[in-house]
Amino acid sequence: MTVGGDLQLVPTARSRILRWAGGGHSPLTVLELGAHCGYSTVRIARSLPLGARLYSIEMDQRNAAIAEKVIRLAGFDDDTVELIVNPSDEVIPQLRSDYNLERLDFVFMDHWKKCYLPDLQMLEGSGLLGKGSIILADNVLFPGAPKFLRYIRKSGLYEWKIHRATLEYSKGIRDGMAELVYQGIK
Ligand SMILES: C[S@@+](CC[C@H](N)C(=O)[O-])C[C@H]1O[C@@H](n2cnc3c(N)ncnc32)[C@H](O)[C@@H]1O
Question: Which keywords are on file for this protein (predicted)?
């Protein structure tokens, strides 16, 4: 479904997973990679417990300008949702020093698929993932993130599964969302 040209709405199944992951596991510090126009940002923010904080990274300035409006119109101030306008590989290494983060409870990856693996490894290196941190990565089967999937299979750092679905807006194309639970270094 498309509203106003480029504000895409994620479909219900995906939204349900987001709501489940956000609500059921009560994350306190959340990172979103790829806000686009803020739809998933607002869906996640709505599912967070009081006092939780969501950092959303979007590198495209035009998308970010729309996302900022959507997030604020939805009623979230920047104590709850902070939109960071820069590429993820520049922001992730600064999350500790510039944003005082100590741990990420939940990470939603929905940016360019080629960034999934390097960004996951950067998150591991940052020390911000703790035992039980959840990473949800969208569209891992189509367009697909094969290197990312190969890595999580081999690394031994995660318990993981794929939630299978069809691609949003295209019923025939099979897709999936990977859910990873960080187990830490054994
Ligand atoms: C599929 S859209 C995100 C959709 C959004 N999560 C939603 O469901 O409403 C991908 C977005 O990620 C942004 N993006 C891609 N690679 C990025 C990166 N490395 N760092 C920050 N933003 C990135 C793009 O500019 C684009 O707006």
Answer: Catecholamine metabolism, Endoplasmic reticulum, Hearing, Methyltransferase, Neurotransmitter degradation, S-adenosyl-L-methionine, Transferase
